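Q: What would this chain look like folded?
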Amino acid sequence: MPEYKAPLRDMRFLIDHVFDFHSNYAALGASDASPDMINAILEEGAKFCENVLSPLNRSGDEEGCHFANGVVTTPAGFKQAFAQYVEAGWHGLAADPAYGGQGLPSSLGLVISEMVASSNTSWGMYPGLTHGAMSAIHAHGTEAQKQTYLNKLTAGQWTGTMCLTEAHCGTDLGIIKTRAVPQADGSYAITGSKIFISAGEHDMSDNIIHLVLAKLPDAPAGTKGISLFIVPKFLPDAAGEAGARNGVSCGSIEHKMGIKASATCVLNFDGATGFLIGEANKGLNCMFTMMNHARLGTGMQGLCLGEASFQGAIKYANERLQMRALTGPKAPEKAADPIIVHPDVRRMLLTMKAFNEGNRALTYFTAQLLDVAHLSADEAARRDAEDLLAFLTPICKAFMTDTGLEVTNHGMQVFGGHGFIREWGMEQLVRDCRIAPIYEGTNGIQALDLLGRKVLGSQGKLLRGFTKIVHKFCLANAGHPQLAPYVAQLSELNRQWGELTTHVGMAAMKNPDEVGAASVDYLMYSGYIILGYLWLRMAVVAQAQLEDGSGDADFCRGKLATSEFYFKRLLPRTSAHRAAIEAGSECLMQLPAQLFAL
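A: My prediction, written as structure tokens:
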């Protein structure tokens, strides 16, 4: 199994130089997030993830979760690791101090989440779902609900879930069957079954707080009739502690391809006591707070598993001896050369490096927007940040997980036959990553959301909010001595982005299928341009540091070489996506359904 080491140098490069978190924190009044505090968080977080979570990754996959008589037991060491995580204060790092949190910016919480998921994705699902539940209750709960649940959730005594999916419906939540019947005391009796519930039952906390979508008896049809309810596993007693067992039970856990140490449960609600959160029939709006949190977290899983895979692959490529370099022996004293000398291995490793570091930059760029949206006193700045987040969230989720899966596959390929067997741990990373393009809204759904709702639905406003940023950057760097050709390449793609969007919008006015036919290619096209912008931002900083001697020279040269690779070998993929978009929907829709079976 690859031995995870937190990439602190790359993290600091982004935090200190590319995005300058420090100035942003000062402007937002986040004075507690001092440089010394940030450095301590990075150092200590790395130690915990490297020394506690990473060693449990393979054993957790081998053992999996145990289910018996409605009880789920997590793999050996998981419960103890969670206790250490909570004891060290990681769980409440970015939570509201009013409910026991440390009140640090969301971006720092995401940096720790990156380390956690890179070292042990399955384990990270348990606190990750809890953070989502906390955000939904904080945004939409009553003060009484916040006092009852947030203190315990922040302290890690209780954990949380989100319960959406049912056996007959996944994305189409408007047809859920779970029902909520009003009771005389103001509570609701929740009855129904939910499937694929991550962390739905386990032994790591004293109580589990389920956020459940259900319909009232008089609810309108479709998504307009969905309400959201807090359904605790144990009902809080008069003292606020876990009291009587509620009418919710785990019927089974799924036998999965990957993330085997994360319990994925069938939950049965049999007249369980629930409490309405937010307004009746407005539950989907409330749940989107949690879903968007989860989508950003899922997108980050592509980065995290890709990082773990790259660390394994680069070590192996430097050690594994196979054949001689085409240009002559590079290690003549050895029986063969290390495989890193071969161009195709370089292609895979550079693809991994370019996507990982680009996706990390996208994560931190998004994290900085979250800070502005949550903390800024400037209403216009908050609104602009929220618009950019709305635009970027489906791209983060889908582009980062699709490219993360590509990266983990490359990592396994670098190992050759050894990558296909369990001994080296590379195949686990592929298995764990395969779910990421599926859950929290499949990547196809994310693409429809991006193109249909966010871009065309806003008449292009959300897209323009980002293309203006790219345009200004390109204008400012058009004459860059070393990077001008790549600035021009990005500028032209940025211009074409608007033209292509108009083309799809016009075609969709005649045939709505054009949106569905173009959406996935449009999202990937968008993702490549966004990473191009971020890679150029990194390259500009690296070039400046190389010239003035302020940065590590080898690190800066590595950034510049990887940026060049991205622009020459990966960004051109936009041409294929554009061609597919312009091909339209006819070639997809003309074949009658019955002919697919022939």
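Residues 8-152 form a domain with the Butyryl-Coa Dehydrogenase, subunit A; domain 1 fold (CATH 1.10.540.10).
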